[in-house]
């Protein structure tokens, strides 16, 4: 296995919750690391949606990043104090 | 009014614009820049390397590990040292009259003499009931998150779709400590041709150089002949395993279940001819990786009005191109998976060939150099550890024939 050199810790917000990630990680990978796979609700069916293709083609993982909507979380690296929001706001996650 | 618009649009000039910073685009950028051309590489991702970044496997023939991330980093360093400019998080949305229109915040257009499309491939959809649920990802996404981002995408994982890519990603995930329960076929449907056990067995046998492939040890040359059916009957009762991962060549996933996220799948037995048998069972999983195969990503060649041809042996619709990787539109070239689905080593050799083909236009290399670059592509193909499409050689022949026909029709002699 190729080991990553330990990278700088970055803190950002996802729907009001503070998330820790590492510099250079896309938003979706940092969310995965924190056990979050559901990124938004589908506007049509109300079902949960998350990562599907991981390379920017499917747009399933989109969220509002620093006020700009439709940003693909699989393509966008995290930044300190970045604000990531989706229509999941207010949803309680089951704590494991 | 026009003047105002031009002032707002920030422009850039270059000799060559390369779309795609994967193995083909990176190698091409190095070849072009080392001969003094101004090269701009555009990529939608936030870093270069393309699919190389996720690749990590043992090349059985060369007895060494193929660590794509390291190979990509070396290529990028070299390209940067030669003055290649990179525009990341930037998509190309139009190509017209040698102007490349991009989504970059600062630069909106690049005026260029030549364009190399090295856009790679997209994963084919594999629609199954429940495939929209959270916890269902493509095999490519699974590879990227496992090997590049070092993220475990689930605890109990299965793959649907048995092919060289899904086998390789399953092995990589197991190495990363994920519990991979097995690889299954998708339920037969009008939309996929991946449910016939006989065809699937033959296609995975062609991935002979990859990691430890027991298909050859197990079935030997029997796989490609009359004995396939016998072998498949045998496989109904005996488990085929690759690196300890079960390959269920006689079981298909018919549905993915779960209220919010994936909780289980329904699995049914499948006949040798690809028909579902019996009632089936429920298997508890939290993650499903779908592998529907790869399609050349040709959108930009279509936008640029290149002639497109359908060659199933190459993976489907691809831009018509010469043996020197020139398309039907003057100044536009192609390299890598946009020309047909093959491994990274072939893409890299094609990147060099396309670059030299462009250099020939600039009178910086000779005809003889170009012929050598063609030979290098053929050699890379014959040494490639992974063959995605069993009739790829025939596909390349058909492309050359179609190019010759095209040249005849438009009244030009065959000059490549």
TrEMBL record, chain A:
Protein name: 2Fe-2S iron-sulfur cluster protein
Gene3D superfamilies: 2Fe-2S iron-sulphur cluster binding domain, sarcosine oxidase, alpha subunit, N-terminal domain (3.10.20.440)
Pfam families in the cross-refs: Fer2_4 (PF13510)
Organism: Ureibacillus xyleni
Span of the signal peptide: none
Transmembrane segments: none
Keyword Lipid metabolism: no
Keywords: Oxidoreductase
Any one GO molecular-function label of the UniProt entry: iron-sulfur cluster binding
Lineage: Bacteria, Bacillati, Bacillota, Bacilli, Bacillales
UniProtKB/TrEMBL annotation, chain B:
GO MF annotations, alphabetized: oxidoreductase activity
Occurrences of domain FAD/NAD(P)-binding (ranges): 15-180
Keywords, sorted A to Z: Oxidoreductase
Gene3D superfamilies to which the protein is assigned, alphabetical: FAD/NAD(P)-binding domain
Pfam families: Pyr_redox_2
PANTHER family reported for this sequence: ANAEROBIC GLYCEROL-3-PHOSPHATE DEHYDROGENASE SUBUNIT B (PTHR42949:SF3)
Name listed for the protein in its UniProt record: Thioredoxin reductase
Protein species of origin: Ureibacillus xyleni
Upper classification of the organism: Bacteria, Bacillati, Bacillota, Bacilli, Bacillales
């Amino acid at each position: 296995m190729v080991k990553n050199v330990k990278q700088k810790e970055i803190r950002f917000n996802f729907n009001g919750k503070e998330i820790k990630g590492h510099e250079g990680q896309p938003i979706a990978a940092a969310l995965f690391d924190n056990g979050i796979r559901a990124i938004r609700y589908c506007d049509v069916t109300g079902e949960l949606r998350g990562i599907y293709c991981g390379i920017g083609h499917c747009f399933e993982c989109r969220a509002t990043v620093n006020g700009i909507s439709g940003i693909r979380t699989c393509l966008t690296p995290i930044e300190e104090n970045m604000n990531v929001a989706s229509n999941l706001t207010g949803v309680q996650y089951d704590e494991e | 009014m026009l003047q105002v618009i031009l002032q707002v649009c920030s422009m850039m000039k270059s000799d060559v614009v390369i779309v795609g910073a994967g193995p083909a685009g990176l190698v091409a950028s190095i070849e072009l820049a080392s001969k003094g051309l101004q090269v701009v590489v555009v990529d939608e991702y936030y870093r270069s390397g393309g699919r190389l970044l996720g690749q990590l496997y043992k090349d059985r023939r060369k007895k060494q590990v193929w660590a794509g991330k390291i190979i990509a980093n070396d290529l990028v360093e070299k390209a940067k040292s030669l003055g290649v400019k990179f525009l990341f998080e930037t998509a190309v949305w139009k190509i017209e009259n040698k102007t490349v229109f991009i989504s970059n915040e600062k630069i909106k257009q690049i005026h260029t003499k030549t364009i190399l499309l090295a856009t790679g491939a997209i994963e084919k959809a594999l629609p199954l009931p429940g495939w929209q649920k959270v916890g269902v990802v493509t095999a490519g996404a699974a590879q990227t998150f496992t090997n590049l981002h070092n993220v475990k995408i689930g605890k109990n994982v299965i793959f649907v779709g048995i092919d060289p890519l899904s086998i390789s990603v399953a092995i990589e995930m197991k190495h990363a400590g994920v519990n991979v329960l097995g690889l299954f076929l998708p339920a037969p449907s009008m939309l996929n041709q991946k449910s016939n056990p006989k065809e699937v067995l033959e296609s995975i046998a062609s991935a002979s150089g990859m990691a430890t492939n027991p298909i050859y040890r197990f079935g030997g040359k029997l796989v490609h002949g009359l004995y396939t059916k016998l072998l498949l009957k045998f496989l109904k009762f005996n488990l085929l395993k690759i690196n300890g991962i079960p390959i269920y060549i006689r079981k298909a996933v018919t549905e993915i279940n779960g209220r919010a996220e994936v909780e289980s799948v329904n699995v049914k037995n499948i006949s040798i001819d690809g028909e579902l048998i019996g009632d089936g069972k429920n298997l508890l999983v939290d993650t499903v990786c779908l592998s529907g195969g790869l399609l050349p990503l040709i959108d930009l060649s279509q936008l640029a009005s290149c002639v497109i041809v359908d060659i199933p042996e190459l993976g489907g619709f691809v831009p018509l191109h010469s043996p020197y990787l020139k398309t039907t539109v003057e100044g536009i070239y192609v390299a890598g998976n946009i020309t047909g689905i093959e491994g990274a080593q072939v893409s890299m050799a094609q990147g060099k060939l396309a670059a030299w083909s462009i250099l020939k236009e600039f009178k910086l290399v000779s005809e003889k150099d170009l012929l050598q670059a063609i030979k290098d592509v053929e050699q890379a193909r014959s040494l490639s550890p992974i063959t995605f499409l069993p009739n790829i050689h025939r596909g390349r022949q058909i492309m050359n024939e179609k190019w010759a026909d095209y040249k005849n029709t438009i009244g030009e002699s065959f000059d490549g």
